[in-house]
Structure to design on (147 residues):
C-alpha cells in the first residue's frame, strides 16, 4: 500500500480552494469561536453517529446534550488546568469577547465560557493541531462524565 502524507483538514481545505495560509494569531476571538463551534459540532456528531445508526432526530437530540453552551461551559471548567499558556490566552480572549448574539438557553456566563472554549478549538484546528483538539474534547468529556 502506498504511504500518503497526512495533512489536517484546514490545510486540505486551503490547498483545495487555493487559499493562502494566514497568521491565525491575528484572527478575532469570535472568528476563532465561529470555526471552533463547527469543528466541535463535527467531532460530537461523528462520535454520536459512531455509537449507533439512529433516526436523525434522535442523533440531533443526543448531539445537543454535548454542544449546548451549558455542556461546553462544564467541559471547559474541568479543562482549565489542562490548557497550555497559549490556550489559556486564547480562552480568555474568547471568553471576554463581546458577542453579537445573546445566549438562548444558557446563562451569559456559560455562553461566554463556551465561546472561549470554541475559540481554543478553532485556534488549534486552524493551526493544524487536531490531535490536541481531540485530546481536549475527549479529556473534557471524561472529566465531566458527559460521554
Amino acid at each position: 500500500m502506498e504511504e500518503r502524507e497526512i495533512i489536517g483538514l484546514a490545510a486540505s481545505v486551503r490547498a483545495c480552494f487555493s487559499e493562502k495560509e494566514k497568521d491565525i494569531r491575528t484572527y478575532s476571538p469570535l472568528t476563532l469561536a465561529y470555526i471552533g463551534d463547527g469543528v466541535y459540532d463535527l467531532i460530537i456528531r461523528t462520535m454520536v453517529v459512531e455509537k449507533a445508526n439512529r433516526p436523525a432526530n434522535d442523533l440531533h437530540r443526543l448531539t445537543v446534550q454535548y454542544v449546548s453552551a451549558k455542556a461546553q461551559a462544564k467541559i471547559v471548567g474541568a479543562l482549565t488546568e489542562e490548557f497550555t499558556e497559549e490556550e489559556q490566552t486564547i480562552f480568555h480572549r474568547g471568553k471576554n469577547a463581546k458577542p453579537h448574539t445573546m445566549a438562548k438557553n444558557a446563562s451569559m456566563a456559560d455562553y461566554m465560557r463556551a465561546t472561549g472554549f470554541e475559540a481554543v478549538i478553532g485556534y488549534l484546528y486552524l493551526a493544524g493541531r487536531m490531535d490536541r483538539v481531540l485530546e481536549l474534547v475527549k479529556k473534557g468529556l471524561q472529566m465531566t462524565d458527559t460521554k
User: Anything to note?
Assistant: Residues 47 and 129 are 19 Å apart (CA to CA). The helical segments are 9-16, 29-51, 56-67, 69-79, 85-95, 108-126, 130-143. The chain has a mean pLDDT of 89.
